[in-house]
Amino acid sequence: MSEHRAKRDAIIRARRLKMINSLMIGLIFAMMAYIILFDSSGIGFSTPLLYLLGAGLSVLSLLLLLRSKREV
Length: 72
Fold this sequence. Notes:
Blueprint: H1 2-37, H2 47-71
């Protein structure tokens, strides 16, 4: 019975990581759209800060993806 529960918990963890990863990828695309559409006019956040934030989210998303692949 504990084997079944451990397998179920692993599946739930993997699904949660995939969901977080999908949200982070969506946030990266939203930031890219913001940079393309609005930052050229000079309003809002500074562009280098957004680039650094996007790069950090990309690395974190890649690490989460690798972790979820390893668990399943």
